[in-house]
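Consortium newsletter contribution from the modelling node. Members have asked for a concrete example of what our holo predictions look like. Here is one, prepared for the adenosine monophosphate complex that several groups have been discussing at recent meetings.
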Amino acid sequence: MRVLLIGSGGREHALAAAMIEDPQLESLHVAPGNPGIAQIAICHAIDIDNNQAVIELAQQLDIDLVVVGPEKPLVNGLSDALRKVKIACFGPSAAAAQLEGSKDFAKQVMADAGVPTAKSYTCTNQAEIEKALDAFGAPYVVKHDGLAAGKGVVVTDDRAEALAHALLSARVVIEEFLDGPEVSLFGISDGAHIVAMQPAQDFKRAYDGDAGPNTGGMGAYSPLAWAPKDIMEQTLEKVLHPTIAEMAARGTPFVGLLYAGLALTKKGIRVIEFNARFGDPETQVLLPRLKTPLATLLYKAATGGLTDEMKLEFTNDCAVTVVLAAAGYPADPKVGEPITGLDDSPQTRIFQAGTKLKDGILHSSGGRVLAVTGKGADLTQARLAAYEVISQITLAGSHYRRDIALAASEIGEN
Ligand code: AMP
Ligand code: GLY
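And here is the predicted structure:
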């Protein structure tokens, strides 16, 4: 099988590293990729927001499967364009990617499918906004309707801040605050069937102790020993199956990765958000533990070959991913600094994200620069492995959280 992977982040590096382990894989091409990915696959510097350029590359290379990493090309209709020319694609159509692209659309689908989520109002003017804020009270949850690269959501006790954020967007979803730990659970779907990956937890705040601004994710761990034992079955039954069935019934089947961001509340699981792609950094923590050959799995999903009985196989060990962020991340990341000390140990894997080569030397080129995943028999060992490697990496002004999976490892539930 010849695969073309679209994207350039840490998620794509982890996808590439997992796919090259699949015995069915003949060659792996990535567009545009990054210096880390270039060590394990063939990279092509094309504009991935240009659907025609991707199609031409896939045809030139005689590609059997295109795997789309980021959400933007999905919302731009890349999957539709590929399917039109009969190239198998793992990634939803533009219509189905609206599950991520529009919070209001996701809420409507969940309502129609009976999927448990926060009560909400969609508002388009100040009077509606104020009414909704007062109906729910603090803490206020305000979400811009469209894709907002992680900046669309504000959760605050300050009504004035909530109102100001709401007024920045023509259409906002205001919803009930959900109290409880958050879990990311991914389903892989062929449009009619869906199989679940194990859950992971990510750390969204920039600094230790969940302080500081929201980020794209500063780390993750898996498995979650404290989560209900049947969390995968519950999520399949209450969230993933009904959502896939609803999307199929609407004539816009969801083929690709359905990311359910869940809150485990006292009243049960509730969906906080859907994404239409693999999460970052959850992918970097989950895929090193996946035993099921990934390229074959994604090909089956892209071509209607899954069954509901299929189960994915994971190793029994634990994994912890720690993200190295540039100085100033997330507000104003400083880029273009040299990076040294990238030495994997047998228990770790370094996944590059915001990196580029300048005169043959690795430099930072984005806010989230790289991630180190450590594995071990328990979370304590996995943490040790990851932190030993990340502490040896030098990048001026960079920072990483020291408490990824710390609380879970201290409870010693593994
Ligand atoms: P989202 O982009 O919808 O995932 O929101 C970003 C973050 O805001 C989530 O990971 C949560 O931490 C928080 N959040 C979103 N919706 C809610 C909610 N209804 N209740 C509590 N926190 C929320
Ligand atoms: N880890 C959060 C996201 O991928 O959106």
